[in-house]
Each structure stands twice: as structure tokens, then as C-alpha cells.
Amino acid sequence: MKGIRQRYPGSFSIIIELGYEVDPATGKRTRRQRWVTFRGTRKEAEAKRIELLAAVNTGTFAEPSKVTLIEWLRTWLKTSVAPPMRRPATHRVYASIIEKHIAPSRIALIPLQRLRGTDLERYLADVPGAAASVAVHHAISAGRCAGRSTLGNARFVELVAKAGVKRIKFHGLRHTCATLLLQAGTPVHVVARRLGHANVGMTLNVYAHATRGMQEDAAARLGALLHG
């Protein structure tokens, strides 16, 4: 599979394309790549690559580093939550939870890329307070600033039920939109632009399942042109 190289049995390098950036010194565009080491089977490495590409697509990809959870959260608080990006009250609540609860906890110093779901579950089990408070802790620990003015999950579930359609996660709307557009024959570069992908290759990798039918359709059309 493109984007995966075997280092030795049981170890693979996953290559993630992050588009291009301009070198401030030379003014030239340079390709941005990140190589992630993965240990397991090739099939597991392929699944991990798809997961990482989805993270790049949603803006949640964490580049390889030794940054700890608390360091990342403090940076996130300054760059994504501080007013005027969010309401002052929201910023105060999030800052208080980060400093009073997460900072003194055991998960605070865990490197972000080593953090596992079990670590968060263990932390959340120790969070005092009502269910609503736990939900806010969970949102912060996961690095999401879901302001109370945004469409909440409960409201989204209600709308899905009223529409009588299959229940999916809120973010699933993005993937559904992209899949339907591709299956309807929308040019890949148009879909890539709507998704905010750095290049068409990223779209083709993430939505390969949706483009298989396009290949078959293209072959059928070519056959019709050649044979009448």
C-alpha cells in the first residue's frame, strides 16, 4: 500500500503527506511529510494510516513529538479558546478545569501521542461532580472546545430521529457528504477543495472506497466509446 514502508518484520514506517509550506529563507515551496513508526502487522499499519489520514482531514493530527498532554492543552487554550475566539466565561471554565483538575493528575505528564483511551477513562472515573461536569472534562481531555452555543450532540440526535435517517456521529456528516459527491461523479479536485485537503492525493487515499465505482464507470464509458 502506498505510504507504508516496512522497516523490518513487524515494524513499518507510515508516511503522512501534509501538503506544502513556504520556506521563509528561500521562498520556495517544500513538501511536508511526517513519518510515523508503527509496530504490528501490515494490515494493522494500513488501518493506522487510514486513521491518521482521517485525523489530518479533521485537523486533529498530532505530529510526532514529546509534548505532554498538559503542555498541549495549555497551548490549545491560548490559541483556540481565549477570547474573542470563545466567550470569556467558557475560557474561564476550561482554564479552571485544566489547571485545577488535569494538571495535578497522572495523565498530565503523559506524552500526547502515548495517551490512550484507557488513560482518559481512568481519569474520568476519578472526576468528582455531576455528569455534565464529567462531559466538560471529557471534551477538554479530548482537545475539543465544544462551546455551549454550538449544536450539541443531544440536539443532533434529536434532529436525526425526526428526519428518520440512519444515526451517525456529527462528524460523519462530513464523510457522508464527500462520499456522496464522489459517487455522484463530482470531480475529485472539487471535493478536495470543499474538504480543505492540501492535495487531491489525500482525498483519494481517505475515500478510496468511494472511487472504486468511478473506475468501473469510466471503464464502461470508454468501452461504449470504442465499441459503440
Would you kindly provide a written description of the structure presented here, covering whatever features stand out?
There is one protein chain. Helix 8 (about 190-195) crosses helix 9. The chain has three domains: about 5-60, no CATH class; about 70-140; about 165-225, no CATH class. The chain starts with a strand and ends with a helix. With about 230 residues, it is α+β, with helices and mostly antiparallel strands. The chain has helices spanning about 40-60, 70-80, 90-100, 115-125, 130-140, 155-165, 170-185, 190-195, 200-205, 210-225; strands at about 5-10, 10-20, 30-40.
Concise description?
The protein is α+β, with helices and mostly antiparallel strands and 228 residues long.
